[in-house]
UniProtKB/TrEMBL annotation:
Protein name (database record): OxPP cycle protein OpcA
UniProt domain Glucose-6-phosphate dehydrogenase assembly protein OpcA N-terminal: residue ranges: 51-158
Highest taxon listed in the record's lineage: Bacteria
Domain annotation Glucose-6-phosphate dehydrogenase assembly protein OpcA C-terminal: ranges: 164-293
Pfam families, per the entry: OpcA_G6PD_assem, OpcA_G6PD_C
Organism the protein comes from: Kribbella sindirgiensis
TM region(s), chain numbering: none
C-alpha cells in the first residue's frame, strides 16, 4: 500500500503508517529497529532498495530523508509504503527550506520506541558522524568512504571525532579479508616480517587494511596500486615465504601458503544490501575499527620512505627462499657423486674377485 502526503507533518505520517498496517492486516509491529537513510534525490531509489533488501533479514522501519535546503518555503512531503514486497515499513521524506536544517525534528517522532536506530549515509557521510543532527539519534552510524565526493577521506577527523557506534562500509568490505588472514596465521603460526596490500588507486579499504595489519602485527605495511577492482591482493612476508591472498577478478581469490598447494577461495565483492545486513547484525562498539583509525592517522603522519620498508622485507624473504632452493640443488649433485663413487668401488671389488 502506498500513501502520498503533501505538505504534511510527522503526526499525519504516523497515522498513515497505522492505517496502512491495519489495511494490510497486520496491526502489530514486528520490526526490530529503525534505519534512517540520509540521501539525495538522485540516489534515493538505490538506497531504499538496499535498505529494504537488508530488511528481509532484519525487518525494520526505513526512513529515507531527502534534505532540500534552500530559500523556498519550509515543507514536508512524504510517501508511506507498507506491503508491496517490503518486509517492514518505508517512508520517503522530502524536507524543504528551513525544515531541512532541523531534520531531527521530523525524524524523531517516527522512530520505533525501545528499539535501536541505525543512521546510514550512502553518499559518504559527515566528517564527524556523531555530531550530525541525525547522527546523534543513532546507536550505529554507517558512512561509506568509497562514495565520498571528496578527493580523500579525512581520517584524522574520523579518528578524533570517533564515538562508539561509528563504522564505515570501507571497513565492512574487509571482514572476509581479515577473517582469512587471521585464520592463515592461526593455522600456520610464523613470524611476519612485513606486509603488502595491493588495490585500485584511492581505495579507502586498502588504507584501512594496511593500518589494521600494522596495528595488529607491528610490522611495516606497504601499499601498491593495481587496476582493481577494489583490493586485489594481501601478502604477509615470512622467513619461509609469503602468505598471500590474491583476487584479481573480484570474485574468486587464491590462497597461498609456503609449502602448501594453492587453494581457491570464494571472495566475491558484496552488494550494498549485504554490507548493510552485516552492520545490522552487530550494534555494539567496534573497538578494532577505532584502533585502526588511530593507526591510520599515524600512517598519514609517517614519511613516504617509512611506508616502503616492507619492500626490504619482501626482498629479504625472496632471497632466503632462493638461497634455500640453491642449497637443496647443491646437495643433490654431491649426493649423486657419492652414490656413483660407491658404485665404482663396488665394481672394482667384484672385478678383483
Amino acid at each position: 500500500m502506498i500513501i502520498d502526503l503533501t505538505d504534511t507533518t510527522s503526526s499525519e505520517i504516523a497515522s498513515a503508517l497505522l492505517k496502512a498496517r491495519r489495511n494490510a492486516g497486520s496491526p502489530a509491529m514486528g520490526m526490530v529497529g529503525t534505519i534512517v537513510v540520509v540521501v539525495d534525490e538522485a540516489s534515493h531509489h538505490d538506497a531504499m532498495k538496499a535498505a529494504n533488501e537488508a530488511g528481509r533479514e532484519h525487518p525494520s522501519r526505513v526512513l529515507v530523508a531527502i534534505l532540500r535546503p534552500g530559500r523556498g518555503a519550509s515543507g514536508l512531503d512524504a510517501e508511506v509504503r507498507v506491503g508491496e514486497g517490503i518486509p517492514g515499513e518505508a517512508v520517503l521524506l522530502r524536507l524543504h527550506g528551513e525544515l531541512a536544517k532541523v531534520p531531527e525534528s521530523v525524524v524523531t517522532p517516527l522512530l520505533l520506541p525501545d528499539s535501536p536506530v541505525i543512521v546510514w549515509w550512502p553518499g559518504g557521510g559527515p566528517r564527524v558522524p556523531a555530531e550530525d543532527p541525525l547522527g546523534r539519534l543513532g546507536r550505529r552510524r554507517v558512512t561509506d568512504a568509497a562514495a565520498t565526493r571528496r578527493a580523500s577521506v579525512d581520517y584524522t577527523a574520523r579518528a578524533e571525532g570517533y564515538a562508539p557506534g561509528d563504522t564505515d562500509f570501507a571497513w565492512t568490505r574487509l571482514t572476509p579479508w581479515r577473517a582469512l588472514m587471521a585464520a592463515a596465521l592461526d593455522q600456520y603460526p610464523t613470524k611476519v616480517t612485513g606486509a603488502e596490500v595491493t588495490a585500485a588507486r584511492g581505495n579507502p579499504s586498502a588504507d584501512l587494511m594496511s593500518a589494521w595489519l600494522q596495528s595488529r602485527l607491528k610490522v611495516p605495511v606497504e601499499q601498491r596500486n593495481s587496476r582493481g577492482p577494489g583490493v586485489t591482493a594481501v601478502r604477509l612476508f615470512t622467513p619461509s615465504g609469503p602468505i598471500a591472498l590474491t583476487r584479481p577478478d573480484g570474485a574468486v581469490a587464491t590462497f597461498s601458503v609456503p609449502g602448501q598447494p594453492d587453494r581457491p577461495v570464494a571472495l566475491k565483492r558484496r552488494t550494498t544490501s549485504e554490507l548493510l545486513s552485516e552492520e545490522l547484525r552487530r550494534l555494539d562498539p567496534d573497538d578494532v575499527y577505532a584502533k585502526t583509525l588511530a593507526c591510520m592517522v599515524e600512517r598519514d603522519a609517517m614519511p613516504a620512505d617509512a611506508k616502503k620498508v616492507a619492500e626490504t622485507a619482501r626482498k629479504s624473504t625472496a632471497a632466503k627462499v632462493t638461497a634455500a632452493g640453491k642449497k637443496v640443488v647443491a646437495k643433490k649433485p654431491a649426493a649423486a657423486k657419492k652414490a656413483a663413487a660407491k658404485k665404482v668401488a663396488g665394481g672394482k671389488k667384484a672385478a678383483k674377485r
